[in-house]
Amino acid sequence: GRVFDRVVQNVPTSFGNASEAIAGLNQRTHLTGPALQRVAEPMLELTRLTGGEISGNVQSLTRLFGDWNVAGAQMPATLDEVFRASQATGTGVDALAQSAVQFGAPLRQMGFSLEESLALFGKFEAEGVNTSTVLAGMRRGLANFAQDGEAPAEALRRVTDEIKNAGSVADANRLAIEVFGTRAGPDMAAAIREGRFELDDMVNTIENGSDTISRAS
C-alpha cells in the first residue's frame, strides 16, 4: 500500500526487493506505516551498498534487533552502526549480525554492548582471529567467574590485564588456560597480547562515525 509506494519512490530498488523488505520487516518486527518505512528504506539501501541479499539481511538483522532488544525507533540508527562496522573492518553485514546473535548472550553477560560486540567481531574477522574458539573460551571463563562470585565484566578486565602484563608468553598461556580452558587458552592469550580486545577506536567509529547509509547512497 502506501508504505510500498513511498519506499519505491525514495529508494532505487526493484519492486520485488521492496515488497520482500516491507513484508519481511512487518512480519518479523510488527512495524507498520511510517515506522516500517523508516526501517525498510535503510535496509534496502544497506543491502544495495554492501551487495547482500535482501531476504538474508532482513532475517539476520531482525534477529539481531530481537536478540539485543533494539526498539523500532532505534532500528535505523542500529543499521547505520552495522554499516559502519562493516565498512571499517571489511566484514559482511550478514556475518556481523549472525555472530552478534550467536554469541550475544555470553557477551551481554560479560558486559559488552552491541557496539562493542560489533567491534569485536569485525576486528576478529579482519585480523584472522578464530572467533568461535575465542568465544567458546570466554563462555567457559564466564562460568568460572560466576563460580567465584566475581562480576563477569570486571573479571574479564582483570584477567585481560594480567595476561597482557604477563612476563612471558608461557606465563600468559598458563593464566589463560586456567580461565579459558586448554583449547581456547593459547588463542585467547595471543588475542589479548596482540591487542585484539583493544576496541575503543573501533567502538568510537561505530558509535560516532559520520558514515551513514543515507550519506553513502
The portion of residues forming beta strands comes to under 5%
Give the end-to-end Cα distance, rounded to a whole number of Å: 25 Å
Secondary-structure element order, as H and E?
A: HHHHHHHHHHHHH
Q: What would the principal axes of the Cα set say about the shape? A: elongated
Look at the structure and give the mean pLDDT.
Answer: 92
Largest sheet at a glance? none
Radius of gyration: 19 Å
Comma- or semicolon-separated keywords:
mainly alpha, elongated
Quickly describe the structure:
With 217 residues, the protein is mainly alpha-helical. It has 13 helices and no strands.
Account of the protein in words:
- The protein has 217 residues and is an all-alpha fold.
- Helices cover 78% and strands 0% of the residues.
- The protein contains 13 helices and no strands.
- The chain has helices at 2-10, 15-29, 33-50, 54-67, 75-89, 93-102, 104-109, 114-127, 131-147, 152-164, 169-193, 200-208, 213-216.
- The protein is elongated, with a radius of gyration of 19 Å.
- The two termini are 25 Å apart.
- The model has no long low-confidence stretch (mean pLDDT 92).
Topology:
Blueprint: H1 2-10, H2 15-29, H3 33-50, H4 54-67, H5 75-89, H6 93-102, H7 104-109, H8 114-127, H9 131-147, H10 152-164, H11 169-193, H12 200-208, H13 213-216
